[in-house]
Amino acid sequence: MGGASLLKETGPREVFCGLTSIVWLHRRMPDAFFLVVGSRTCAHLIQSAAGVMIFAEPRFGTAILEEKDLAGLADAHDELDRVVNELLARRPEIRTLFLVGSCPSEVIKLDLARVAERLNGKLNGSVRVINYSGSGIETTFTQGEDGALRALVPLMPSSSVKQLLLVGTMANVVEDRFVTLFKRLGIDQVESFPPRKSTDLPSIGPETQVLLVQPFLTDTARALKDRGANIIQAPFPLGVEGSSLWMKAAATAFNINSSLVDSILEPLVLRAQKALQTHKEKLNGKKLFLLPESQLEIPLARFLHRECGMDLIEVGTPYLNRDMMNSEILLLPENTQIVEGQHVEKQLDRVREHQPDLVVCGMGLANPLEAEGISTKWSIELVFSPIHGIDQAADLAELFARPLHRHDLLNQKLLAHS
Ligand code: SF4
Question: Against a cut of 0.90, is the pTM above it?
Answer without folding.
Answer: yes
